[in-house]
Design brief:
single chain, about 260 residues, alpha+beta, nine-stranded mixed sheet, 8 helices, 9 strands
Length: about 260
């Protein structure tokens, strides 16, 4: 399945869920002095997360992103890039955790036919509501639901103590398991291990707080959803590749460089 067809399938799926399909924002934000480049799909919706009425409550995008803070990982992992495309669905005071989780699971396991045995999830260690949704509503075995802390399952990472100010909240990530032969080989290995066996494909952020200058978390006017799924990672998985650079998006570029 090509990246173009995955993008189209994703946007079509959420359009059917009554999301407005919004064009990718500029890679250099026009009205956001807090960032040099657009690092995530949620950036163009900051005002909506803060309660501004944009005329719609649900949106989905395929956002072009650039992250300079990933520079030290590029080339060292199989799944990090400076420039990438992020698929995302968003809710501004409309649906919340359960719908976001159910639809993410539906898209991966039914629309894309990824076998559920290949998927693990992580949740914020204090978020029992999300844990119960995965366990009781979706039916994921408890051993495949990993509880992690502020660095891994709060977005932005460690925002509570380090910032930046603005919309933030706990998150839940979905991981693809390449199998024991792909990683460290240890009998006990889960998504908290950085051996390469697991790759995070979708981050579901429950944006419900506004971090302020004094590091306090003020509840936002509405509880919101901000999700992000790397198109390059998803394409690699759907094309049977463990390394993004071996997949269809990068091979023509690599071959041209070699030539």
């Amino acid at each position: 399945m090509t990246a173009d067809s995955l993008r189209e399938k994703f946007l079509g799926f959420f359009k059917a869920k009554k999301h407005k399909i919004v064009e990718s924002d500029s890679l250099v934000p026009k009205d956001d002095p807090t960032v040099l480049f657009t690092p995530a799909g949620m950036n163009q919706f900051k005002k909506e997360f803060m309660g501004f009425d944009c005329g719609f409550k649900r949106a989905a995008t395929a956002q072009r992103c650039l992250r300079t803070d990933d520079l030290d990982k590029v080339g060292k992992t199989s799944s990090h890039h400076t420039f990438f495309e992020m698929l995302g669905n968003f809710s501004f005071g409309d649906y919340f955790k359960e719908e976001a989780i159910v639809w993410a699971w539906e898209f991966l396991t039914k629309e894309l036919s990824i076998h559920q045995d290949k998927l693990w999830v992580s949740v914020y260690q204090e978020d029992e509501e999300t844990y119960k949704i995965w366990k009781d509503k979706i039916g994921i075995p408890e051993k495949k639901i990993i509880k992690l802390g502020d660095k891994d399952n709060f977005w932005p990472a460690e925002a509570k103590t380090k910032g930046p100010n603005g919309p933030c909240g706990p998150c839940s990530e979905i991981f693809y398991d390449f199998g024991p032969g792909a990683g460290c080989g240890e009998k006990i290995c889960d998504p908290s291990c950085s051996c390469g066996r697991f790759v995070e494909i979708w981050n579901l952020v429950f944006t419900q707080f506004n971090r302020k200058d004094d590091a306090s978390l003020e509840p936002l006017p509405n509880k919101n959803i901000d999700t992000g799924m790397g198109l390059e990672r998803l394409a690699a998985i759907m094309q049977g590749k463990q390394n993004n650079f071996e997949a269809e998006l990068f091979q023509p570029i690599i071959k041209e460089i070699i030539r």
